What we know:
Helix content is 40%, strand content 14%. With 243 residues, the protein is of the alpha/beta class. A seven-stranded parallel beta sheet has the order 3-2-1-4-5-6-7, with helices on both faces.
Amino acid sequence: MKLAGKVAIVTGGSRGIGRAVATLFAQHGAQVVITSRNKSEFEYSKNILEISGDIRKTKDVENVVKKTIETFGRIDILINNAGILPKIKPLHEISEEEWNEVIDVNLTGQFRFTKTVIPHLMKTSGCIVNVSSDAGLKSFENFEADAYTASKGALVLLTKAWAVEYAKYKIRVNCVCPGIIETDMTKPWLENDADRAMAVAEHPIGRIGMPDDVAKAILYLASEDSSWITGAILPVDGGAITK
């Protein structure tokens, strides 16, 4: 029960990594609020409250935070997990609208939630875990998703900036950088055997990651086990960035 008595917000918590994080946090005693753009059909435990909201809309973000405080009276943990993966295509074929959508969700959305939650974390000496990507640490051949790479790379540096900026309030800010994880978002790129084999080959450990692999790393960074760690960037990618 590493999070007994804690209240956590997990953005994009209705599927994939977010759902794994919410489930694991609840198992460890946290009250968890998850956000999603559309109401999910998944049955959650009594420790998990789903609040619909669009990370691109400031009023939605403020509503999620307001309802969390009204329900639980505090916020201890923010997991900035929500994100989108665009169609893979070279830079010169990306429209400005496509670029802006990815940046708005993957980067500005994290800004909106962090900005709104920070005053509450100041009261609890809470923590933030950002979910970036190993694509924010290294360029990969055949992965032509420049807006995604830009957003995830920026989130890595923002983690360090926020860690320094809010250390005086005893707020810890860390970041995980997953490799390829078996989720609904990556499913289109893993459907045929050749693509899956190429994805596996990117990871020296010899397999694609699972949502629980990332959730366990996030649990560590959100718990007192990491009480002296802030500004850390943790690759959770089966060794992909070491190649």
